[in-house]
What we know:
Chain B: It holds the Pfam family EMC4. Chain B: Belongs to the EMC4 family. Chain B: It is found in: Endoplasmic reticulum membrane. Chain B: This is ER membrane protein complex subunit 4. Chain B: Keywords: Endoplasmic reticulum, Membrane, Transmembrane, Transmembrane helix. Chain A is mainly β. In chain A, helix 3 (about 440-450) crosses helix 4 (about 460-470). Chain A starts with 6 loop residues before the first helix and ends with a helix. By secondary structure, chain B is mostly helical. The longest helix of chain B has about 50 residues, at about 40-85. Chain B is elongated. Chain B starts with a helix and ends with a strand. The interface between A and B is large, with 65 and 30 residues. Strand 45 of chain A pairs parallel with strand 1 of chain B, so a sheet runs across the interface.
Amino acid sequence: MPITHAFLLFFIFSSLQPTLSLYEDQVGLTDWHQQYIGKVKQAVFHTHKTGRKRVVVSTEDNVIATLDLRRGEIFWRHVLGHNDVVDGIVIALGKYVITLSSEGSILRAWNLPDGQMVWESSLHGPKHSKSLLVMTNVVIEKDNVVIIFSNGRLHAVSCIDGEVLWNKDFEVESLKVQKVIQPPGSNFVYVVGFAASSHFEMYQINAKNGELLKHESAAFSGGFSGEVSLVSSETLVALDSTGLILLRIRFHKGNVSIQQTPISNLVEDSLGPAVIIPSSIMELFAIKINAVTIFIRVTGTGKLEVVEKANHETAVGDALSISEGQQAFGLVQHAGRDIHLTVKLAHDWGGDLLKESIKMDQQRGLVHKVFINNYVRTDGSYGFRALIVMEDHSLLLLQQGAIVWSREDGLASIIDVTTSELPVERAGVSVAKVELNLFEWLKGHMLKLKGTLMLASPEDIAAIQYMRLKSSEKSKMTRDHNGFRKLLIALTRAGKLFALHTGDGRIVWSLLLQSLHKSEACQHPIGLNLCPWQVPHHHALDENPSVLVVGRCGPSSDAPGVISFVDSYTGKELSSSSLVHSVAQVIPLPYTDSTEQRLHLLIDADKHAHLYPKTPEAIGIFQREFSNIYWYSVEDDNGIIKGYALKSKCDGTVADKFCFGSRELWSIVLPSESEKIIATVTRKLNEAVHTQAKLIAADQDVMYKYISRNLLFVATVAPKASGEIGSVTPEESWLVVYLIDTVTGFVLHRVTHHGSQGPVEAVFSENWVVYHYFNLRAHRYEMSVIEIYDQSWADNKDVWKLVVGKHNLTSPISSYSRSEVVTKSQSYFFTHSLKAIAVTSTAKGITSKQLLIGTIGDQVLALDKRFLDPRRSVNPTQAEREEGIIPLTDSLPIIPQSYITHNLRVEGLRGIITVPAKLESTTLVFAHGLDLFFTHFAPSRTYDSLTEDFSCALLLITIVVLVAAIFVTWVLSQRKELQDKWR
Amino acid sequence: MEKGKGVMGSCRRWAVDFSDNSTAPSSRDIPDPPGFTRASVDQDDSAVSRQKKDAESNWKAQKAWEVAQSPFKNLLMMGFMMWMAGSTVHLFSIGITFSALWQPISALQGVGKVFEPYKDNKVDLLGPKLLFIALNLGGLALGVWKLNTLGLLPTHASDWVSSLPPAQEVEYSGGGVPL
């Protein structure tokens, strides 16, 4: 209900002190929160007890979580630190989850029902190695023992309290342990591995006390490569270094024997080297040659025989003991649009325990992992459920030939986000699924009225709250008047695009990009960037908006690029192409063509600029502005910032009129022995600035903000101080901050903070930059602000000249003509360390700004920019107070009510994105990490609209009653007047 | 009244006209009664009425001056109210300022009406009118001054530049750390 001229309300509100907190019943009205865990790496089922069935998973985003098997909801979740990678999980004693993480040096036990940590122990060892976690059934003094090989040492740890019972080092220097095996029912473990790449080493160790029982080794001149598969408790299968010969290694009773079988003997048309798919299925293993998966049986006599060659994409799960001596394993194969889930017995290839075909969404890609679990049906037979991890990182539970639930965990790893408008509502096109009828509308308003008049019963209040939360208004698929409804388009690490509705966070469409799909030409595609490509608003309204996705084949910067264009309404890939050049930078230009397609420059590794779209019209527009387009690159590893202008032709031999060469204009070389670039930040391209004048109310003066899109903020630290906080003394650490004009290379401002250290998080908006760093002398974090003002316009002070328009304030300006700037800066202490920082952005840039700070506790805190005003002084004058200057304090306040995430946490927070709504007062905030959080935020309250709980019905009724009263009194007064006259 | 007129008009039988008071004897059918000299009565009458008229015009002039001075009181009261309202912009001060502006303007619009009752050939209304206008202008000035102290008048450079959009930049530069 926007009323643009609600002056009265404005005056009432402006006299109140703004508070940013929200009431309990406002939670969930405009905000939504989604929890994810990331791509599952390992899953352990826990279904024995009669209680709630659950699965414990560890993921590539260092999350340990338990999920409800019925619905896929998270029971509990722990996000480990950035460098605390989970190596393995087991369930011990039926009540603990034991996890090994941080390269095998931290072992933790979590209580399975509630996720409380029970114990933690750290394991140390002589060298870095593979980490293995094996649950044993060995009991030492009533303690169940878990055996860990990590950091080159074998540890036995008690499950009850995490105490290390014994440990054992291995004398062979170059031992690379592959497996730790406990044969069932025995009291010893085998530790097997390769040494010096041509020796197979086997240690038999007493699991009770760590005593070495036997050590055998065998040499194989061909060497070993890659992974191993366990085909029995005393037999391994490995490949030689060429990948052409299969080695069956048997270490029965301490005698090591190696048997060689060339793959060509088994498979006639074998093409190239094979790779072992690591597994531990009895008498069976799988190898992969190119795209063909081959299953090979190892018979008791040591003979190898091929049981199946699968040409389709296949995923194999680990073995599952279903009964004494019987093992089953899961297998998922793709066949067109379907996937086939097969559960087979290990010793009997032909006998399938389960064969199901499930229709699978094409946008989920291939199956990457499969975990199976069995249950006993009511008729006593075995049923199986399978948890599968797809290419797009989603997690699905399959049971009885259907998808029971699915989780879109790809959203836990968002690379880039952009927004798109929704379609305009047209007459005759009903897009909302549930339109309210008049009766319901009336009923709703009556309920609301009851609520306002405090007549509502608790049930009514609950009904009102439900109505507010489930309002169909906010999740419609059309543009709204206030610009609250938009599509958030997110590119994930798996190469999938998701479009989320801002109203309720649901996925409108998703697309697994074919251009970012692994293929022959593009082995390791990665998504880099997502830009709005076409935003039709004026003369191309019939076209759908589209986004540009830029990717690259491989991690190196000279790998060829891929681009694709995706329709934002339908989620269809309009076109995609593999580029002949690499992609080092994507520069959106401030020009659009007649169909509102934005011109983009893609800079390759050879510093050639490629113009997109490749149309003659784009060339025409580009040629017109050619001399005014520059670009720069920050080479942070060697501390050089270079600026370039464009040449009209490429240097290469191929004539390409969309390719332009670069000419170096300037370079800033930072001394590598004293400065290392750690952060750069620029203004957002689409930021709206209302005015460049800043009023100084105290003396009615004007200062002119230096507003330029071509400003770059660079922070450097001493190379020594680029490590952890506290690794250097204050004397040898400094932080230098530059403001550089990227057209001319002119350094506008430079300031050194002695005794300070990174990491630096910064945000640049209008004419100011705020950055956050650590002050080693004060042992505290600090936030500094720099504001830049233009002095060359300061003499525009004659009112009459301004009235008649005789000033140069709106004439176009060039970076080459001006240089006179003054800066004001100030530093404040700040309690938190930061993960991200952003600033609110509104449609016209009139509303005052607030900083959005992603705290270390994964919450988003709003901090008024006024707290970071360099003009704050200890005793501001009356006029300054009226202007809103806050008395100086040494530290910035953290007001608990201004957490915009209220009581929620955005685990693993990585970025905060602000998007202006059409309503000037409001900005849309999207925070993403493992979790997603979205809310509306009004930095100076919603001064241009009525609040959500404003009762329209009450207003209408009041008006009606007033009109009726006026009419009645008028009639009455008429009658009375007449009577008076007759008297 | 209407009815009576209608009756008289339609069926008049006879009538005596008392309203004849013309001074010329020749025009009269009936001579004046003996001892009655019309001229002396007339003269006497005119002297009295002149006196009366003088008093009235004096009184009118006096009243006019009073009316002319009345905005002064208003002015004082306004000044006091303004002082009470302070110099910050809020509902009260804005209300007072606008009434302080509106009152003189409406008064100036109705200058003629205000002095209508005191209109007389002999009374010189120019002085009171000028005073009245001057005082009201003073009130208006006071209102404008108040408006200015509230900062609502565009008398500063800041008022003219804050609506200007930021200047366009000629050059464009993009880039950053290679992806």
